[in-house]
Specification:
Helix content: 55-70%
Number of helices: 17
Mean pLDDT: 88
Shape: globular
Strand content: under 5%
Number of strands: 0
Number of domains: 1
CATH class: Mainly Alpha
CATH topology: Methane Monooxygenase Hydroxylase, Chain G, domain 1
CATH architecture: Up-down Bundle
């Protein structure tokens, strides 16, 4: 005990703090409870329904759980992005954590797909417009932190955008902007206008912070030995496929069950043409393009790539 006390004293002194003050404070501190530490009361009182339909509460809590997982994902990515002496082992371990979070997200769509009555959803969803899951700021930040900005630009504009392009201009040509604009007039929908009013400045700052710290840029800056680490490459491929194919398709299938039930041409609450926006075969969004073969990239979202996710060697790809 004396040894432990001495270590605490040395730690506090190294931080410029008075050990005696801290020890005196311990005399009056309350014991820690689970509910205080987790903030249980605050957490379970964060649901506000807009209707009296029971399944709306499930819908709200499900999306809140998603946002908590998104925060966990961003936290893990930050550990990689700002690591002082990054190596393949640490990089891979954190990516595997992130993939497990997304695996959990992918499997969780059964909660909505099988856990809500279609009739209830089709009623309460109309009270949500123009809100949409499209407006998840954390998910957009995950994208910015995962890959170089050019890989998130609408394919039609990639040839006109490079590293010298102002961030605001690049932002206006991101792939998901197409889901929030009138294709004929170019006018932005209320969905995207409100989203940008709330988060535009935050997004631009985040894009700048991760311009060279995103996972793809960091991987390419590693020494060749680390880049050739098979476990790391497979971790990157697994993450890429999980986020941009598996999770997206689970979301797509869950949306299909509700939006196409009795209303074949139903729009998403934000008004987007959700089938073409969501399906990976249209967007062909890939975080780490050089880690996929030509055939895999060509068939992105159109076939099951599960068997291609694990490489036994690196001869098939050019890195």
């Amino acid at each position: 005990m004396q040894e432990l006390i001495q270590e605490i004293i040395l730690k506090l002194e190294s931080e410029g703090q008075n050990p005696q003050t801290h020890f005196e404070g311990m005399l009056y501190s309350k014991p820690m409870n689970y509910w205080d530490y987790i903030q249980t009361d605050a957490l379970i009182n964060l649901q506000t329904q807009r209707t009296n339909l029971p399944d709306e509460l499930i819908f709200i809590m499900y999306h809140q759980i998603n946002e908590l997982l998104f925060k966990m994902i961003l936290w893990e990515i930050e550990q990689v992005a700002f690591h002082d002496s990054l190596n393949a082992e640490f990089f891979s371990s954190r990516l595997d954590r992130v993939s497990r979070y997304f695996d959990l997200l992918s499997g969780s769509f059964k909660i909505m797909g099988d856990g809500m009555e279609v009739a209830q959803y089709m009623k309460f969803r109309n009270t949500l417009a123009p809100a949409s899951g499209f407006q998840s700021a954390q998910y957009r930040m995950i994208e910015f932190a995962s890959t170089e900005l050019i890989n998130l630009i609408d394919h039609r504009f990639r040839n006109s955008i490079n590293r010298n392009t102002p961030f605001k201009h690049a932002f206006n040509h991101l792939y998901w902007q197409a889901a929030g604009k009138d294709h004929k007039t170019g006018k932005k929908s209320t969905l995207i206008t409100l989203f940008e009013e709330k988060y535009m400045d935050t997004f631009i700052r985040f894009m700048k912070d991760y311009n060279t710290r995103n996972l793809w840029s960091i991987f390419k800056s590693l020494p060749e030995k680390e880049r050739k680490n098979l476990n790391l490459v497979n971790s990157l491929r697994h993450y890429d496929h999980t986020v941009n194919v598996s999770w997206v398709m689970e979301h797509y299938n869950a949306a299909s069950k509700y939006l196409e039930s009795g209303k074949k041409s139903a729009e998403a609450t934000g008004g987007s043409e959700w089938q073409k926006y969501m399906h990976p075969k249209y967007q062909r969004r890939v975080f780490f393009p050089e880690l996929w073969t030509t055939d895999e990239f060509k068939n992105w979202g159109e076939q099951n790539l599960e068997k291609h996710k694990i490489l036994s060697n690196l001869d098939e790809i050019n890195i």
